[in-house]
Amino acid sequence: MSAAGERQLTALSELAGLVAGGATRRSQLVTATGLSRAAVAQRVDLLITKGLLVETGTVATERGRPPLALQLASDASVVCAVDLGATHSTVAVAGLGGTVLAEATEEIDIDDGPEAVLSRLHEQLGRLLAEAGHPASHVRAIGIGVPGPVEASTGTVIRPPIMRGWDGYRVPAFFEGRYDAPVLVDNDVNMMALGEYAHRPATAHLLYVKVGTGIGCGIVSGGSVHRGATGAAGDIGHIRVPGHDDVLCHCGNTGCVEAVASGAAVTATLREAGLPVEHVADVVRLVQAGDPTARRQVRLAAQRIGDVLASLVSFWNPDAIVLGGSIASLHDDLLADIRAAVYRRALPLATRTVAIEATILGRRAGIEGARRRAVQHLLSPEGIARILAAR
Amino acid sequence: MSAAGERQLTALSELAGLVAGGATRRSQLVTATGLSRAAVAQRVDLLITKGLLVETGTVATERGRPPLALQLASDASVVCAVDLGATHSTVAVAGLGGTVLAEATEEIDIDDGPEAVLSRLHEQLGRLLAEAGHPASHVRAIGIGVPGPVEASTGTVIRPPIMRGWDGYRVPAFFEGRYDAPVLVDNDVNMMALGEYAHRPATAHLLYVKVGTGIGCGIVSGGSVHRGATGAAGDIGHIRVPGHDDVLCHCGNTGCVEAVASGAAVTATLREAGLPVEHVADVVRLVQAGDPTARRQVRLAAQRIGDVLASLVSFWNPDAIVLGGSIASLHDDLLADIRAAVYRRALPLATRTVAIEATILGRRAGIEGARRRAVQHLLSPEGIARILAAR
């Protein structure tokens, strides 16, 4: 593409972003961009023609013709958001402005492999689109979080520790021919981090730490997910914690924080102690019922997790650490020990402003991040280019 | 400033950056930016008038008027780069294109405080400018690395562990009235990281780890230093390493990697073992002479540092880790153990592409980073705005 073409896309993307952010009048776009009225008009008209924006009249007043109000198109444009877990898939259909039109969660088994799981997902999506009253042709972008490492640029699953049969599978390929829309795939924890970030406008550097069966984190800085050189960033489950070199981890190393302090590890410890626990949910129930042994083990786990986070605070100096995952409902028991460990070990300058908090989106963090990712892409220069080319 | 003004600055910054990157003809700028010939001409002429660019003729040929060649101005424009350590100050005067015109290192004592140290620095700078044949009015930007935490936006030293008397001192204030130039101050390790990054074009996410008397690191991602919420990012010296809870660190905690594996720690251990060492330089000499006890202690230190870096590789997934600092001359002894520890502990996906290497700039990393920072700022929209306003 020519540089002039790129400039045009950047300008269109900026205008669409301003409308998404609440600018409703052409005059506001002129002020915000420094473009001439004519240049704004030409570009806004193009975005309206292409179906991304609409301009609606308000009721006429005695003072003359009322100004028209711009907004993201909602009649014929939706995004789909998918949060794929090991045992569930949550799918949402949402307007470009954020309104969720339909949403549902179904049980799946991720180990059934990509074709089986994505076929069911496709059916689920079809039902929700019908419920929301939109045909497949209205879908403008699809965001999908999956429970494993992803090469985000291609949407390919890479060497997932769970997800049997998915290694090397390029998820967007499944949707080609089914939807005329870009498919944005990322690790589920990255999606959750993005969702939490979007709901914390004062935060610049956020860590989202998911403690469930395993332990992982998502890193967002300045609005973008930090994925690192090979998309492996945030994979903190196998960081070593002191004093546990006798504990074998499924990765083959010993003393990994996931082997010592994950939901699975606490469950195993309590089971060995004779308590009736099978899953992380049982641990949560026991703690909520006030069982002292269960509370003790959760607090010990929190201290280990806090030790790891102290190192990351020293290194990365975030302003927010958000705790999520199936164990996050125990945040009263977890946060105190995590905070104590971070404040004890990290340097005062690094802990001066860090907020260590429970998730505010809870189970919806992943779906919210996937929705954000879809809209973010749709309004990006790349997304705009696709819209201009397609219709 | 109006949005139109900001756009103009962005366009001017882009043009100056293209010339800095090697574009010498107006036609190349037209192609690269998508701007019209007239728009490029108007902006290039402005940058020439303001003294940032020059356009020089080449020898005429029989085929007619030769094309003029654009480049960054060198007659009346230089930047100054300063690397301030605990016991030395290195100062360089350089052309905007990178040529070092004069450079010298002097001994100082950082604990003499800001006024005394900066006064000596100012004299040193004056001598070097005279040597290079430039008056103070030619200085367009000054980059300074200092051995402590800095609030980079204001250039204020914050709670430095060394640097007695500097806490809360705003370094650029000293230079006001002395030079009509922006002063960019940052932690010395951040400057070193930036210098190494600039010399590794294939690298996107770089960690520069400095092992000298202490241990610290600089983080560069996509060309920018990651400073974190309070400018404390990279302060890895107080991350805990397993198995050393009996070792007291000067920070008041125990088991910090700096207390166990820094040059100062190895020096202390060897002295206790009866070896004749006073400073890190003595350790380096002993190892180079093949002393087995000294080599053993350096290798043990490398393993501890490698354990910490393994955690950071899992978390941040860099594509390069560069080892520098006074102990880096021992890289043959250090790198093998650091690499072994990283490969043993971090996950395969994260270590697949990471290069763990010795510094290529050595002692010049800091001064090179400070020079880059000065030029980077000068060509930024903010730097261009200052030039337009001032002259």
Automatic annotation (TrEMBL), chains A, B:
Q: Where is the signal peptide?
A: none
Q: What is a single Pfam family found in this protein's UniProt entry? A: ROK
- Tree of life domain: Bacteria
Q: Which residues cross the membrane?
A: none
Q: Which PROSITE patterns match?
A: ROK (PS01125)
> So what family is this one in?
Belongs to the ROK (NagC/XylR) family.
Q: What is this protein called?
A: ROK family protein
